[in-house]
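In this supplementary section we document a worked example of the pipeline. Step one takes a protein sequence of length 243 as its only input; no multiple sequence alignment statistics are reported here. Step two produces a three-dimensional model, which step three serialises into structure tokens for compact storage. The input and output of this example are shown verbatim.
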Amino acid sequence: MNVRLLPYEVADGPANMAADDVLLEFAQAEHVASLRFYGWSPATLSLGYFQPAADRFKSSELGSLPWVRRATGGSALVHDKEVTYALSLPPGPPWQSGESWLVRMHRIIAGALASLGVAAPITIADEPQVLGDVLCFQKQTAGDLICRGAKIAGSAQRKQRQCLLQHGDILLARSRHAPQLPGLAELCGLTIMEDQISAAIKSTFVKEIGWELLRADWTAAEEQRRRQLARDKYGSRAWNERR
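The serialised model returned by step three reads:
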């Protein structure tokens, strides 16, 4: 099986969320799987689909950040010292059979971190633990990736017409906007760069899943659709302040 591998990009919140929407649309229209890694600039707060917009004012650090509402559930994420991935899959087998993709991707991420020299034990959470009421990384749910008691990777899903979009974050280091959340740098004493973890995840993905990653660019139609969604949906008050 082949998976389209899109270029690493750094963008703002509306552009990143629009791009992930387009991945889901492409999976549906073309029956093609896609994977991408990306960063955020400037540092951005994203709220879960059902989360009240007022949650961003529960701390001064969060309230000062530009923000966007995700199309997936969960709680607030501070996108700063991290890598985000997005995977889209067409409907049905072999794309969506077997183990949950939440657990599958987190297992791949754990293997990638081990290949980069992370010696600290990394486990997959099997029960919930709540350490705060606003930030996603203060809420551990079954399937999250845990290191020394702290959440270092979490993912969320959206399904549309039997297609799957899954995106998630790997916390590389502590952000000044969320000082209560340690990253891999603080937990393991290792500085891991965005390109290192992305490359390691790609390599581990191929080994574990057995699918080939084929480098590709966005089509012209996708680029146009990304710009439209960034402007009219994720950049609009109607979407972001809907709750």
